[in-house]
Structure formats: C-alpha cells, structure tokens
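Q: My hope is that you can spare some time for a protein that puzzles me. Underneath my words sits a plain record pairing an amino acid chain with its backbone structure tokens. Those tokens are not coordinates but codes from a learned vocabulary of shapes. Thank you; the sequence and its tokens follow:
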Amino acid sequence: MSTTHDQAMNYVYQQVLQRLLSFFSRAERTALQLLIQRLVVAAGGVERVGTYKVLMTHSGTRNSCYTLAFLRAAQLSIAGRAPATFQLRVATLRLGGTTPTIMENIHRSYGALFVYDDPRVEVVMVDNREVLPFSHLTPMSEAGRDLNRTNMLMLGHLRGTDGVFEACDDCYLATGEFYSQIARWEGGVDALISGKTVRQQKQFLAGLMREAQKACLSTITHPAFSFEGLFSMLDPLGGDCYRELYAGHETVEWRPRESFETRRGADYIDIQDLVTGNMEERWPLLTDFLGLQPDEIDAHLRENDYASPLLSAHLRGLQACFVKGQAYESGFSEYIQRALLMMRKRRLPERLCDQVLEVYGNPHAMAELRTLASAEAQQALGLNEAQQLCLLFTPFVDAGAGLERFLRRCHPGMLVAMPELHKAMQGNAAPEQVMQWMIDVSGLSVSLICKLYGMRSVPVIGLEAGDPGLSAEDEGAFVEGDALGERSARR
C-alpha cells in the first residue's frame, strides 16, 4: 500500500511540475536548469543531493511566492531524474504586519505546489519565539502580538529625537534572530537560499546593524555586504538578540527548547540573478496557478517586507504635522513621491504610477486615507494615535531629554506634572495617575519606560531608516520631478 501511495503521489507531483512549467517562459526554463546545476554542485553531486537541506523564508510577498515556485520546480525536476532530491524547509516569521491576507497567500502557494503532504518539504511558522507547523487559520497569539509590539516600541524609542521613525524598522533584528534560530532547528540546514536583490540584501544588513546597535549588542566589527556573510554576522550576536534590551525583565525563550542545536555551517545560495525579471510577466503564474490575490499598487510601492505603504506614509504625515509643525499632507505626499521616484527608476509601467496617484495623490481623499491608516496602525502595530505620537517624539530616552517638547506639542496639560514624571521614570514613587498616564500614552510598562530613561539614543548614521537608497542624483531628480505636483498640474 505504501508503494502504491508513493507511486500515486509521484504522479501527482509530476503533474504539478508539468503545470508549473507551462507558466514558465523559455528564459525561465533556462534559469531553472541553472538553479538545478547550482544546487547539485552545492550538495556535492547528485548522489548527495538527497541529504541536502535548503532553507527558504516565506514572507508572503510576490517575490517570495515566485521564489518558492521556482525552488519547487527544481526540487520536482531533480526528483524526476535522480533517485532523490533535496530537502526544503520553508519558514514564516509572524510579525505585526503579517496580515491574514498574507497568511492566506502563503497557504494558497503551498496548496498549489502540493507541499503540505510532501515529506521532502517542511512548512513551519514562528509565533512568539515558538516554531509551529504552518497554519493560515491559526490567529497570531496575543503573547506574540505583545512581543512584536514591545520590541517595536523599545527599539523605536531608541532611535533618537532626530531620527525618522519607520514602521516595522525593528523587524530587521527580529528577522535576523529568526534566521539564526530557524537555521539550527531540528538538525539545522545546509544552506539558506534567497532571491533578494543586491539592494534588498544591503538594506536588510544595514537595518540589522542599526537595530543591533540600539539593542546594545556587541558592535559588529566586520559587517556583511551581502547574504554571503549573513551567518558570520549573526553568530556573534547570539541566539537572543534582545537579551541586553530586556536585561532584568522576564522574557520568553525559543521553543521547543530541545529542538535547537548548535548550528552547523550553513552556506548561502544566491539566486537573485535567476529569479529577478519582469514581474509583470509573472502575474499569470502568481494569480492563475498560485492563486495569489495581491494588491498590485501595494506590491510596487512597498519598500520592504514589513510595512504597508499606507502605514509608512501615515507615520511620515504624523511626523510632519506634530514634530515638524508642517501639514500632515506634506509628510504623507513626500513619502509617496519618493516611492514613485523609485518605481520610475525601476522602469515600471506608467499606468502603475497613475494608479498610485489615483489612490494616494488625491488631496480630497486624504482624510479618508488617514482614517484607514490609523485603523491599520491599531491592527498591525497595536498603537493608537496618542501612542504613535509618543513614539515619534521619543520623550523617555537620554534621561527624558525630549519630554518637555513632547508635552508642549501633544499634552500641554501635563507640563505641571513634569517633576513627577521624571521621578517615576527614575524608578521613584510617584502618584498613581502619573504612572497610569505614562502607560496609556506610551503603550509600555513603567519598568520598561524606566529602562529607556537610563539608556542613550542611537542616532541613525547615513541613510534614514528604511530609506530606499537615493543617491545625490536621485535626490535632485526627486526635487525636480514632483510626481504629485505633476498630477495637480494636470488637473
């Protein structure tokens, strides 16, 4: 019966492969052969490929789904030619921005590629530092939401009063820790494989360095400039990247504890040269075969895997309004302008830019967009507007250096309580109303606020957090080519 079942499943897998290949162009089929060759060589030959295990992380983006389909095609192609094929571990880290829609898209890609019942594929997710079987129907745990929210607040407050707050910028550190842990779970893996572009790799590694510095981890003396050096960069940070940030506070450990072993050496297999291309041509594969339901505008505007463009633009709007004394609309529009510039640099069709302007460039829709963004901030970050403003002003770090400015701009009625607020942040006795106000306005416990009070902020050096990487020439083009201004002129 087992043999009959195996034969039946092998037939199903080959049918999946044939349908998948029918969506590939000639260039993609050629790239697939190069990927197969790259994997076989990395494994040490076709006779060893059956014991070779590859890790891929799945964030639910179009690129992640496409990369998985490409890897699955390679896995099934090798299986049809050789006695065995490589093992594949696909892991998802659940963060604040991991919406039910993202989980549904991941599930659809798994279902279309028939990975759930294939013993050669592990599909797992991490929630609150616990490795679990992937399930798109299981909501994120409240403990996981609290962990993500607290990490975001602590690291966000440590960026300094002059640093621009980027939604989910803290996720670089969480993802770095995730890479480190999931690579050594259940016997570890031989290689990490990714289709991230050079720019995306540099952006991630820069974000990881920035957040590691905020978290008081050892200075990274030999920073990596590509994922080739990712694990050598992660190893000195240790398995718990938050140990210094929460020293003296109770934290949850990675679980199941007995499943994590000392990581064996893992390589990096870079396939960005094989999977990068015209995403417009891949929509049939993504939608008709994998069943994705992507938001096309969101997908093109999104600068990273963690935060939606609407949420990012909203936070820029709040910062412009409350911190800089400008109009909310100016900060919001500036973010969209920069994103449009990057779309045009990537030579995306002008119709997509027009769609962005239709959604985000209409000044009459700004009030509605702000309402939608506030709701998303509450859902994804767990923060109301008062707590978002507190985070933008960072009033607690550096012994409360920014407290007075924050109170004058947002809570002038609390200026009289400044001495009591400083007492509370120093860990001394203070009126209950004062401590409750601190909790309500920040979203943090008093003990963590006291921790921030005794810490020094870490200024962002070079590019702003999450900056898309504009050069001096880009900046000039940005000023000259005001996309929203062009749209207004057309009207």
Q: What stands out?
A: The beta strands are 53-57, 87-93, 121-127, 130-133, 191-194, 267-270. The longest helix spans residues 2-21. Confidence is low (pLDDT under 50) at residues 462-491.
